Amino acid sequence: MFLRCCVLTGLLCVAAWSFAASVAPPVPLLWKASHGQHTLYLLGSFHLLTPQDYPLAPEVQAAFADAEQLLLELSPEELDSPALGQAMLAAAQLPAGDSLQRHLKPATWKALQAYAQANNLPLDSLQHLEPWLVATSISLQEMARQGLDAQLGLDLHFGNLARQEGKPVAGLELGQEQIDMLDGMSPAEQEQYMAETLDDAGSSGARETQRLHAAWRAGDVQALSDGLAADMKRQYPALYQRINVARNEAWLPKLQARLDGPGHEDTLVVVGALHLLGSDGVVEKLRARGYEVERICKACKQAD
Fold it and tell me: What are the extents of the domains in the chain?
């Protein structure tokens, strides 16, 4: 479940969510950081969404309209490049003579066999891959069954809009950096990830996905922090440091350059919601560095 905060997993029951078509737009996880004449709009993304999650809240659309440029985790050029998928596949290749089965506990391998048989998954063709990529593929397949679509994620949505309107779009990091982060999972983490993915491939996993999606739609910072962030920090502490804390720290100088640099351009930054939340998140880190940061949320003020 934790890998939803990584854009690459987006390259990774609609009926249950059909109510969304008749309710208000998602409550945005949107903050505004200011310094002098510069503004950064920070928008927390869910990388896979449903058609019922659109249109977005007016304040999100206003932020995009005000921003002269867009900043995503990965640039649209990389996301659109077949080379990115090829690099991901190459990174997950096991050495000759090795096999996926050898990297899994007997119980996990048995569960994977059962899943493969039930879902027409060609397990023999996956034997040469590391567990992290196979688990990611299964996770994406399960989310797709629930009506979530990477093509509807906020990253691609705003990337397409920016290109249509001629706004410059850049990435905070390179695709290879994300690949290295996933491929850097320890054998124990990969085994745990596979076991958890297979365990979630069913009604319990669907309920957890729906819960997180509902929390994102509600703009519920506390639920996301206590759920996604806390679970990942507890179960995968080393990976949490790499996938969240270290990347946030690496992004901060680039974000500060947008706030401190010359010119008058404003920027909309769209990243996985996890990167904005809690004491490890970009919002608090910018605030701690002296920038004025406020949440933009009309629905939140009405609720207050």
Answer: 2-303
